[in-house]
Amino acid sequence: MSTTESIEEPALALPVTIHSTLLDDDLDDLIAEFVAEMPTRIKTLEDALASGNRPELLRAVHQLSGAGGSYGFGLLSQHARALEGRIREGAAFPEVLPAFGELTEICRRLRPGRPPAA
Asked: Which domains are seen in the chain, by residue range?
């Protein structure tokens, strides 16, 4: 079993979809592009974890931390920062699996555009 196959469902109660908090029409296309990149970013994260490539995992998580906040995805940025801190502290990969699972699940739930009206 690979490291990524052992990831459990996130313990965090996440919204079904996560939309940017930026309400700027001029940024909609950039936000949509960022969201469209998530499958590639998730694969990079999973590959780095599975191969034990700490520098690559750290780089990918750090990028999500900064970009998430820039594009109005505060939840993404918050979780990426927390995971980045654990990795920098030298936590073993099995120790970061729950946080890793939550981060990748957040990535999967990002959506472009405005949230649907309630």
From this structure: 22-111 (1.20.120.160)
